[in-house]
Write a structure and sequence with these properties.
The complex is a heterodimer of chains A (913) and B (140). Chain A contains 44 helices and no strands. Chain A is mainly alpha-helical and 913 residues long. Among the domains of chain A are: 206 residues, Growth Hormone, Chain: A; 199 residues, Up-down Bundle (Growth Hormone, Chain: A); 178 residues, no CATH class. The longest helix of chain A is centred in the N-terminal third of the chain and has 57 residues. Helices cover 33% and strands 28% of the residues of chain B. Chain B is an alpha+beta fold and 140 residues long. Chain B has a single domain, classed as Jelly Rolls (Sandwich), CATH 2.60.120. Classes of the chains: A mainly alpha (913), B alpha+beta (140). At the A-B interface, α36, α42 and α44 of A face α1, α2 and α3 of B.
Chain lengths: 913, 140
């Protein structure tokens, strides 16, 4: 029932805006599978009717060779064309070729029957792959997770009804006309496809008709030689498909012996369309989970060979249509269900890169090659060695025994790997979740949890608690007396989540025995657990809040705050008054935390706590201010940005206010009366508010005259763009700023040139040149950060890194990339800056009218920049070079500039006096 | 002699190995917390076996590093005393005493830490120097 509910929830979780897309895509897949199951039944039945059974193995070989080859070439072609064109072309191609085949069948030429079967195999590969590729482009990843169940159901219904349709109508319209019917369904599928892609929000722009799979056969063969376990995997996969062919052959032989003509078509269609699909459906949704839970993934691997072996023994003893059909059903159903889970197990011990490398090989090559091998084995057995068909089950039996042995070896390897990974706490949680139902895995985790290593115990408990349906409480009770505080902490945490009071007595004993300053890892979780599960939490919480051990009190406070009803009962104004007036900083810190629970009623107390002398108290008060979001605390929080000890908390608290303060923060950024170290932090606040208003406010200051503020503004915008690309960062301010920064770059370049030729270290001129070079680098970085607001940020970052590394292939590639990507106007002044160092002066003059400068002109320019460090260096350089022509400007600066610049100016004037 | 201005302080600080990776802009911020101090001959800049709370750069003059009565090194212009003391709370095993009129730049540890809190890029540059030193040590 639970499996059914889960299945149903997955099926119907379709949201507004997705209904029509989901409907049309389900219909599309239904039509494709409908057509395929008609063709599959008709092609195979016609072949069996036409030829003796000993010709069937040749067909297997031909399908493996030609079907696989044609599908491979098709995927190569499709990958080079758009998805829409690929679907249109494939539709026209298959409809026309099937109609030609139908016409050719009228002449009853032998090769036509082979061709028809190969063509149906090609259709199955192309149409089904294409169907899911379309689905992947019609839905995004999040939608796909919800609606794919429904699409799968459409496909299952299509398969079932296709088969049933063929069974019902074969006597009315005949086998050959069923091909026409399937062509109509292919055409219908195309109409539904067009309707699906015409839905709002669906765009196939950029989608190709296929994905080229890349693997190197040489690499895979070398991997097979290197890894014994990989040999086992390939062996199992090969045996799976060889057995598949042998079992299908037995079934076909019995079907041929039992039915003729239209009856054979009807039987094949009913069997393939209804029975096979129904059994698969039931196994997939209701049995796999239960069997894997009972026998583990390792057991699941054995289910397939063992069940086929049993079925083969029965078939050998009673060679009838019923027994071969049962074997066929067993084989197909276990392959599509247990095999998928078993594959996870098989690949687990392999290194991740090998797994990725071999996936394409297994998908494309191993499947078809093994089926071809199965066909050849049948040719050898039946045609060459003359083995009677009723002996084939014995061959299957031998193969399944080998398969079972290989599976056992793979399982052993898997258990060893899982154990090793648990011990080193490297078990991939995603992989673990896939196999979480596995009895072997559960057993290993329980064993580890009960082991002597505390860290491994905690890790195993963490994994076990994630296992759906696993009853963890007995294990918790067993481990409750664990000596290690870290283990007890985990136990309390799990019991708290489960709402189980089993460990309450022990937790209370632990809290009671705790002394001031005790900070065992289990204390906090014990407190939180006790308050959560105790029926007396209203009486217990105040006692814990006033506990002499501050760690107990703090844990109680942290547990109370999310529970508003309990918190307001326990954290009273009286309690806050007493705690906030305490000489003990820990008590005041608790008060600062607790203010949050009473909200705006306690603002005066919060203001006092924000002014506390202890940074730890102020940090918690800031956190509470961020939760309460009262403008009364805003000025205090902004002022605290100047204090490096609490700056992080101040930024976080202000960001919690959200966009309601974006305008105020922006105004403060522009307010020259604000201390510089506060103004430079304000963009960081806006950078943590994910709203369009915050972006707009940052854009207002994108050209801030203070370089520090400007840098911080651009960084904040980059941060927002990275995390919230859905907001709008475009528009004129960015383009204007890029232009201004490019101009500044050329200005700096013209200013640094006269000082590059001066030699001698530890001089003012040398310092000035070095400073200007650094400014050029920083300006370049700023330019790319700005480009990252207009173009894909990651690509811009990669281009910047390539350019920053200097000349080389990466540098050329980055220039080429920017040349293709940037707007024409941007390219006009950015590319010369990046790629034309030799002619920078000339380009500066052309683009911005910036002339070449001698040292005096350059220093005059720098004296006007308002950048205090640059101005200081320029004055000192003027003094060093004896540029007395600048004395007037320097004298002005001595009287008007800030303290540090004035001091440098006075030194220069004194030296010249 | 007139007090050093900020550019002269930066030029002096360029000699400090610990600050080698800092840009002139960053050095100017360090310079803004550096104070000039003057010592007459024979005065102790710091005593042996005491915790040092500042770094010193010798602007002019000379300082002897000694352990008891034994002089271990005579430091002159641009040499740095107690560079690593900024990150080390252990007492210095040696003392320092001027041998002539000496001017030094003094950077107090607390001011330096406040500066680092405000300028994470300076912290990163200093870390980078430390890492390079460590690599060189490991390499050797």
């Amino acid at each position: 029932m639970k499996a059914f509910r889960e299945f149903w929830r997955k099926l119907v979780d379709v949201r507004p805006g997705e209904y029509l897309r989901t409907f049309f895509m389900s219909m599309y897949l239904m039509c494709v599978l409908f057509a395929y199951y008609i063709l599959k039944a008709v092609s195979r039945a016609l072949f069996l009717d036409k030829f003796d059974i000993d010709k069937l193995p040749y067909l297997y070989v031909l399908i493996a060779a030609f079907g696989g080859m044609l599908a491979y070439f098709y995927s190569k072609l499709a990958a080079r064309t758009s998805l829409k064109t690929a679907v249109t072309t494939a539709t026209v191609f298959f409809i026309s070729t099937f109609l030609v085949i139908r016409w050719l069948l009228g002449f009853q030429m032998a090769f036509t029957y082979y061709l028809f079967n190969i063509w149906v195999s090609l259709f199955s590969i192309v149409a089904v792959t294409q169907g899911w590729l379309v689905a992947a482009n019609v839905f995004n990843a999040r939608e796909a997770k919800r609606v794919y169940g429904l699409l799968g159901l459409g496909a299952v219904i299509g398969a079932g009804f296709g088969g049933q349709f063929a069974a019902w109508t074969v006597f009315i319209i005949g086998s050959n006309n069923l091909i026409v019917a399937s062509s109509v369904m292919i055409l219908l599928s195309y109409v539904v496809f067009r309707l699906a892609i015409a839905q709002p929000g669906v765009t196939l722009a950029g989608a190709t008709g296929g994905e080229e799979e890349h693997f190197s056969l040489v690499d895979v063969l070398s991997d097979i030689r290197r890894y014994k376990h990989f040999q086992v995997i390939i062996g199992i996969i090969a045996l799976t498909y060889v057995v598949d062919v042998l079992v299908e052959f037995q079934f076909s032989a019995m079907a041929k012996a039992s039915y003729k003509g239209a009856d054979l078509v009807r039987f094949t269609a009913t069997f393939m369309g209804i029975y096979l699909n129904l059994v698969n459906f039931v196994f997939q949704f209701f049995l796999t989970g239960a069997v894997v839970r009972r026998f583990g993934v390792g057991g699941a691997l054995q289910v397939m060979p063992v069940s086929i072996a049993i079925a083969s023994i029965i078939t050998y003893a009673q060679p009838r249509l019923l027994t071969t059909a049962a074997t066929r059903l067993t084989e197909a159903a276990t392959r599509y269900t247990f095999n998928r889970t078993g594959m996870e197990l098989l690949y687990l011990p392999l290194p991740a890169e090998l797994k990725n490398r071999t996936k394409a090989f297994v998908d494309i090559f191993a499947d078809r090659f093994s089926r071809g091998l199965g066909g050849m084995l049948l040719v050898l057995l039946i045609t060459v060695l003359g083995l009677p068909i009723n002996q084939v089950p014995l061959v299957v039996l031998v193969l399944t025994i080998c398969w079972s042995v290989l599976s056992w070896r793979a399982q052993r390897e898997y258990v060893t790997t899982v154990r090793r990974r648990i011990e080193s706490r490297r078990l991939d949680i995603e992989t673990a979740r896939i196999n979480a139902d596995d009895a072997v895995m559960i057993g290993l985790l329980e064993q580890t949890a009960a082991g002597p290593n505390a860290r491994q115990t905690v890790y195993a408990l963490g994994l076990l608690v994630e296992v759906e349906g696993y009853a963890i409480l007995p294990l918790l009770r067993k481990l409750a007396r664990a000596a290690e505080p870290t283990v007890r902490a985990k136990l309390y945490e799990i019991a708290s989540r489960a709402g189980a009071a089993d460990l309450l007595e022990q937790a209370m004993a632990e809290i009671r025995s705790s002394r001031a300053g005790d900070n065992a890892a289990s204390i906090g979780p014990a407190v939180s657990y006790a308050i959560t599960v105790s029926p007396e939490s209203v009486n217990l919480a105040p006692r814990l809040l006033n506990h002499p051990n501050q760690h107990v009190a703090e844990a109680a406070m942290r547990c109370l705050l999310p529970n508003a009803a309990l918190a307001t009962r326990v954290i009273t104004p009286e309690w806050l008054a007493e705690a906030s007036a305490s000489p003990d900083a820990n008590r005041r810190r608790l008060a600062a935390m607790g203010v949050e629970a009473r909200g705006a009623d306690e603002l005066p107390r919060l203001a006092a706590l924000l002014a506390d002398r202890e940074p730890a108290v102020v940090e918690e008060a800031l956190h509470s201010a961020g939760v309460i979001r009262s403008r009364t605390c805003l000025n205090a929080a902004v002022g605290l940005l100047a204090d490096p000890h609490v700056r992080g908390a101040a930024i976080a608290a202000l960001a919690q206010y959200g966009e309601m303060i974006a305008g105020t923060v922006s105004d403060l950024m522009e307010d020259s009366a604000m201390p510089e170290n506060v103004r430079r932090q304000l963009p960081r606040v806006l950078g943590r508010i994910p709203s369009q208003r915050a972006v707009d406010m940052l854009m207002r200051s994108i050209g801030h005259p203070d370089l520090g503020v400007r840098d911080a503004v651009i960084r904040a915008l980059n941060r927002l763009r990275e995390r919230h690309p859905e907001l709008d960062y475009g528009g004129a301010p960015v383009a204007e700023r890029i232009h201004a920064e490019a101009r500044y770059y050329f200005e700096l370049h013209s200013a640094v040139k006269p000082f590059r030729t001066l030699t001698g270290s530890r001089s003012a001129a040398n310092l000035l040149a070095y400073t200007l070079d650094q400014r050029l680098l920083v300006t370049l970085e700023r330019l790319f950060r700005l480009l990252g607001l207009k173009y894909p940020p990651r690509q811009m970052h990669a281009a910047y890194l390539a350019l920053a590394r200097g000349k080389g292939d990466d540098h050329s590639a980055a220039i080429e990339f920017l040349d293709n990507l940037l707007d024409r106007e941007l390219k006009r002044y950015l590319l010369p800056l990046l790629d034309d160092a030799g002619r920078m002066a000339e380009r500066g003059l052309d683009l911005f009218g910036i002339p070449e400068r001698n040292s005096q002109e350059a220093i005059r320019l720098l004296l006007r920049t308002g950048d205090s460090w640059l101005v200081s260096c320029a004055i000192a350089t003027a003094q060093q070079l004896g540029l007395r022509g600048l004395a007037g400007e320097i004298r002005d600066l001595a009287s008007s500039a800030g303290e540090e610049v004035s001091a440098v100016a006075e030194s220069a004037l004194a030296a010249w006096a | 002699m007139a007090e050093l201005n900020i550019v002269e302080k930066v030029i002096a600080l360029e000699a400090v190995d610990l600050l080698k990776n800092l840009t002139p802009d960053q050095l100017s911020r360090v310079a803004s917390i550096a104070r000039e101090v003057k010592f007459a001959p024979g005065r102790a800049v710091f005593e042996a076996n005491q915790r040092l709370d500042a770094l010193y750069v010798i602007l002019d003059g000379a300082v002897e590093l000694h352990s008891g009565d034994e002089v271990m090194h005579r430091a002159g212009q641009n040499e740095v005393l107690g560079a690593w003391a900024l990150f080390d709370q252990e007492p210095m095993p040696v003392g320092a005493r001027t041998v002539e009129d000496t001017r030094l730049l003094r950077i107090v540890r607390d001011d330096f830490y406040d500066l680092l809190s405000d300028n994470s890029e300076i912290t990163a540059a200093i870390f980078s120097t430390l890492v390079r030193r460590f690599r060189a040590l490991v390499g050797n």
